[in-house]
């Protein structure tokens, strides 16, 4: 008997949304999931007073920037893992994906986080059997590039 597959992007989107919405930290920050495809994941974050890191200038905290890039990168790594784990049963796949975690994250802060809405996007650079590498970017509402990140994620 062939194991059930998560073949369609709709099934993958649903799985990513389910996991994303169960993480209280994402809700606390106010991160919203905009797009999930095999090519990229996009999320946004509205600026709010609690996220300011430099109160003199009202700039987004660097830790929030890193967190947002990590969250979007992890979601993209999960999409890549679906493709690598199609041969597994649903239970085995769920167990592997439940272990998804960040191994390494590098953030380059290019400009101060000024803006009222920040969008993070991620693309898959490489997806292996156990590790995925993802590139992510953060832009403000004027499409100014604020930060870039490269993350390595355990996916299996």
TrEMBL record:
Catalysed reactions listed for this entry: a long-chain fatty acyl-CoA + H2O = a long-chain fatty acid + CoA + H(+); a fatty acyl-CoA + H2O = a fatty acid + CoA + H(+); a medium-chain fatty acyl-CoA + H2O = a medium-chain fatty acid + CoA + H(+)
EC number: 3.1.2.20
GO MF terms, alphabetically ordered: fatty acyl-CoA hydrolase activity
Keyword Hydrolase in record: yes
Keyword Cytoplasm: no
Domain of life: Bacteria
Annotated InterPro entries: HotDog_dom_sf, PAAI_dom, Thioestr_dom
Keywords: Hydrolase
Coiled coil location: none
Domain Thioesterase residue range list: 57-146
Broad EC category: hydrolase
Segment forming the signal sequence: none
Family classification: Belongs to the YigI thioesterase family.
Protein name in the entry: Medium/long-chain acyl-CoA thioesterase YigI
Protein source organism: Stutzerimonas zhaodongensis
Lineage: Bacteria, Pseudomonadati, Pseudomonadota, Gammaproteobacteria, Pseudomonadales
């Amino acid at each position: 008997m062939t194991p059930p597959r998560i073949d369609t992007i709709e099934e993958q989107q649903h799985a990513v949304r389910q996991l994303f919405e169960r993480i209280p930290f994402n809700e606390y920050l106010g991160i919203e999931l905009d797009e999930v495809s095999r090519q990229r994941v996009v999320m946004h974050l509205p600026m709010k007073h609690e996220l300011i890191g430099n109160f003199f200038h009202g700039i987004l905290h660097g830790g929030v920037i890193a967190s947002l890039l990590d969250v979007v990168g992890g979601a993209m790594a999960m999409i890549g893992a679906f493709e690598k784990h199609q041969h597994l049963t649903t239970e085995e796949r769920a167990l592997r994906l439940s272990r998804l975690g960040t191994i390494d994250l590098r953030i380059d802060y290019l400009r101060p986080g000024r803006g009222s809405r920040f969008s993070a996007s991620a693309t898959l650079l490489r997806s292996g059997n156990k590790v995925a590498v993802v590139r992510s970017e953060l832009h403000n509402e004027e499409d100014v590039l604020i930060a870039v990140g490269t993350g390595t994620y355990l996916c299996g």
